[in-house]
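Per reviewer request, we include the raw input and output of the structure prediction for the construct analysed in the revised manuscript.
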Amino acid sequence: MPFAMVGYFLAVADPNYSFSWVILGLVTLCMVFARNAAMAFNRWRDRDIDEKNPRTKVREIPAGVVSPNEALIFVVFNSMAFIMVTYFINQTCFYLSPVALAVILGYTYTKRFTSLCHLVLGLGLSLAPIGAYLAVVGQLNLVPVLYGIAVLFWVAGFDIIYALQDEDFDRSLELQSLPVAMGKKNALILSTIFHLITSMVMLWAAIKVQEYYPNASTLHWIGLSVFIILLIYQHTLVKPNDLSKVNLAFFSTNGLASLIFGTLVVIDLIF
């Protein structure tokens, strides 16, 4: 969501376009419906796997809180709602909505045949800043695309960290991941490389923001600095032989990093 807001406000900061509460609301609904559909589909499709994994057997479907049919109905409803909302944004978003759904729903299948599944997850989330920008402008621009690339490698990097805790389980069921393919140590190295790429691309994007929006203040740079510092911090939390702080690195650190960065950039673009 923070990167979607960055994409939206990058567009409305252009003097050729204006702020609209309606479009902002529709973009927000798109993010909510897309996330609901993706998360619920993952839970529905992986229910048999989740039931066997001690870490995930407490999830709603294996625990019997939600039935598989209820989860599937939820997926269909949110998918249809997502497409319907894009119709009221513009033709570009509407025509591309099935592509976006194919990526975010298709991710669930990728760990069955490729260890690059983390990059597919990153690709799905990378559509947020690009889609929000398209909702206003209707065509692509370099800066939201750069933020999309940054999100791709950021998400892939921290998803590798998250997957470390399931390496043995995934291997036992012949599921694919980079920790399974490379081992914990090498997977962590690759995660670090991905986050280095993220930092470099975000730096490039920040330079372009300063070029396109000369009135931008230092808030953008402060947000970027905090984001990179928190990326570095999460890599100090997880070691190949100590995964006790994976949840802190995966959930708390990344959530805080994106929230601070997105908030400061949006404030910068507004004021």
